[in-house]
Amino acid sequence: MQRGGRSQSRRDGRPPGLTGKEIGLYYKNLARERKKEAKNENKIKIGCDVSVPPGVLTRVKEYMEQLKAARETGQEQLDAKFQDQFRHLLSVNFDAFIEETKKQNQDLQLRNSSLDAQLEELQRERFQRADFQERYKERMKLPTMSHAAEIIKAVEKNQVLLIVGSTGCGKTTQVPQLLLDDSISKGMGSGCRIVCTQPRRISAITVAERVSYERAEALGHSVGYQIRLESCKPRERASITYCTTGILLQQLQGDPLLHNVSVLLLDEIHERSVETDLLMALLKIILPHRPALKVILMSATVREQDFCNYFNTCPMFRIEGVMHPVEMLYLEDVLALTKYQFDTRKNKRARPRSDQSDHRPMIEPYIRRVRDRYDSKVLEQLRLPCSEGCADIDFIANLIYYICTMKSEGAILVFVPGYSQISELHNTLLNPRLALGQRWRDHLLVYPLHSMLPSVEQQSVFRRAPSGKRKVIISTIIAETSVTIDDVVYVINTGRTKVSSYDIETNIQSLEECWVTHANTQQRKGRAGRVQPGICYNLFSRAREALMSEVPTPEILRSKLESIILSLKLLHIDDPYAFFPTMIDAPAQKAVSTAINLLNRIEALDNHGQLTPLGMHLARMPIDPQMGKMILISALFRCLDPITSVAAALSYKSPFYTPMDKEQRVDEAKRRLSQNMRSDHIMLHYTICGYRESRQAHRDRDFCYNNFLSKMTLQQLERMKQQFSELLYNSKFLTSTNCMDESSNMNSEKIPLLRAIIGGGLYPNMAHLCTSRQIKNRVRAIHKMFTDDGRRVNFHPSSVNSGKSGFDSNYFVYFQRQKSTDLFLLDATMVFPMALIIFGDGVESGVIDSTHYISVAKTYYFKCNPETAAVVIDLRTSLELLLLEKALYPAPIKENSDAYKLIRAIELLLSIDDKIGEDYDLMSADEIDDI
Ligand code: CDP
Ligand code: MG
């Protein structure tokens, strides 16, 4: 106490207990800190003048007065009342939430004895039927079926069971059926409701179809599926539902104890998706409250012990598969067999992959080791970086022709990283340039397999090819475990896949192509040995394989956490810092705090980390909260169509594809489409408009071809836009489900407004361009630009802003940064300061050296007279109130309503931006060095 008292009395806050030298050091540090602070203060540079001309300001003020007058007539009180109710809803913690739902469900009667008898009878009849018998015979060949009795017993005896078995042994299709049929035949069918989660939409549908077929029933009878926006639910009782993991997470929000489920199967947990990891952690909380709930975890043979440990060494049941042997060949062997020669000229022109620099140090020592075993011509090819992976699509096509020529019957399954390689190989096989390809073209049945394909197209992939034809399936990672195609005998493993990564330090999330792991290769190999001995052709060398990691990094460790934190809030799991460490792999604390900070800045969470009404809406949307906020505001502000185009393309992918060697032509096309708006995002909107127009004129093929656009992606984007609109309609933000409806697009032509809303949505991803200098006769420009964490960035060459100068504003928002040779903004929209001031956060006004300013997030300072500052800050308060009100009572803002005055006021402020550009000089180069 004494010491504490003494230290408190010190004015400078020197900590107690320091000795002589330490005291000296303490003051030295203090002086340094102060100097730094002082320098920081001086560093504030006040940017352009954003003061609004008096005439305009007066009109803005008038609108605001009208709005206020309307508010005072009573609405405010209602807001306060609703806000209270909302807060109460949020104040219920997880334990209370659980108790609440327990009470609600205590009278739930699952069993019904007359139904039990009926079900039993129906089952007996079904077992007699010839079609069932025939299919049952097939099922009996699956390894899982030979363990039927043991599995049933193990489930009876344990609350949690881990089933491990190689892919294709029958876990997904058989285990749920075994349990359902067992409970029906024991006269307990009415209490049996089985839910089995699948990692992907396509597997939920195809498995449900398969299982209905095996049961000789129509889909939707005892077996059904449920995926987002699409379902074919089975009967209420005595049923199996295959659903995506996301759907189950959503159901937990309404019924955290899953009272309507008797058996829950978590499938494919070895994939370590965020969703299954989350569900496992949630199950650990749920299980003690639901002693009757059975949980079955199912995994391929990948690090299964981790799951067993996580569930307190729960019993593990192993199903050994009956796999045929699969021969493993590597790149060097494939080169020796096919005698393929790479066209080095063609491959040199392609943009080099970022991980190609490690090729030489890897391959040279290996070549020395295997010199005696391979022909020197083979080694020469092996030395080329383009020989590996899927850099050369013609090489893969050539290998397919080799198999067709030399090998006996059997389907070929090719693993490539993503959609662009699928379509490239697909095109190469169907429109071959070489005679060899032309000879085989009509003998091939080529199936692309990709998670975004419409479900109808996905089924045909399972059918056997008619005689004389060979089935070739080109797939992403989804055919690795979650989709099983029986007749595959040959697997071509390019070894490449797309993986999202997240760098906590730079807060950059990106989707990159990289090498697979040993675990992936093992699974892929297994796909070849299902019906007979098979061959796996790996398009990488043994040396490459030695460098690959054992298993993939769990997704949660390479993800941004904003959406996850928001959805946990809906489950009443309030403290992410406490919850994440309970997961099988916990994300770093810094990733958690970065996410919370962002959620706070976009006003999804308040300063206490509580969900705001806006946050609740964002949590319910299936997209990134920043994108969610953007489309929500666009609904209120009635410019839905352009903004949903932006949100769809940013959440899914750009509709542009870049053929090898054509980068510049693609960039030119984008620039044409951008109409010089200095915005990659408005360009996307124009692109979709252009596509629609061309479609009406039946010229969409040309339009897509000339502009390097993927029609499939464009169609998918339209579907997503439609989904967003339906979602916003369902939560009453829109009066129509059509994103092109006139009422939702009254302001869609107003570019300054679009710019501001894109800015508001992508905020706080900001960059400030300090200088841009045109060089080389105005064909290129050098940019000196920084993001607000002080990192130097550049426009990516594929951005329409790259190489441009003469911007009307020096502020940009972006969605993604990417680090390759430099740090790049992959996409950017020029925004005006006023948009930042209206839609940004931490807006303050003040005076420095007798200059009045207004600042955003203590980062961007603009000269601004006090009158403008006062009006703008007042307007921000009204906007906040409006958002709160709309979050509580969702409805579009009616034209000529009082709230519409606010939009008019904002529009007025934004419309003067164009004038700012004229007298706004770029800072000179010497000024920059101070920044
Ligand atoms: O889950 P696991 O990988 O252990 O195997 P499964 O998905 O239950 O597959 C067992 C068998 O069902 C496969 O060998 C396929 O013959 C068949 N199946 C199918 O024909 N169509 C599907 N959509 C899924 C499975
Ligand atoms: Mg499975």
From TrEMBL:
Can the keyword Thylakoid be found in this entry's annotation?
no
Q: Respond yes or no to whether keyword Disulfide bond is given for this record.
A: no
UniProt keyword list = ATP-binding, Coiled coil, Helicase, Hydrolase, Nucleotide-binding, RNA-binding
Q: Write one Pfam family the protein is assigned to.
A: OB_NTP_bind
Which of the seven top EC classes does this enzyme belong to?
hydrolase
Q: Which GO terms describe its molecular function?
A: ATP binding; DNA helicase activity; G-quadruplex DNA binding; G-quadruplex RNA binding; hydrolase activity; RNA helicase activity
Give every Helicase ATP-binding domain span.
Answer: 152-320
* Location of the Helicase C-terminal domain: 398-572
GO cellular component, as recorded: cytoplasm; nucleus
Instruction: Enumerate the InterPro entries for this protein.
Output: DEAD-box_helicase_OB_fold, DEAD/DEAH_box_helicase_dom, DNA/RNA_helicase_DEAH_CS, HA2_WH, Helicase-assoc_dom, Helicase_ATP-bd, Helicase_C-like, P-loop_NTPase
- Give the matching PANTHER family: ATP-DEPENDENT DNA_RNA HELICASE DHX36 (PTHR18934:SF237), ATP-DEPENDENT RNA HELICASE (PTHR18934)
State the protein's name. Answer: RNA helicase
- Which organism was this protein described from? Drosophila virilis
Name of the gene this protein is made from: Dvir\GJ22099
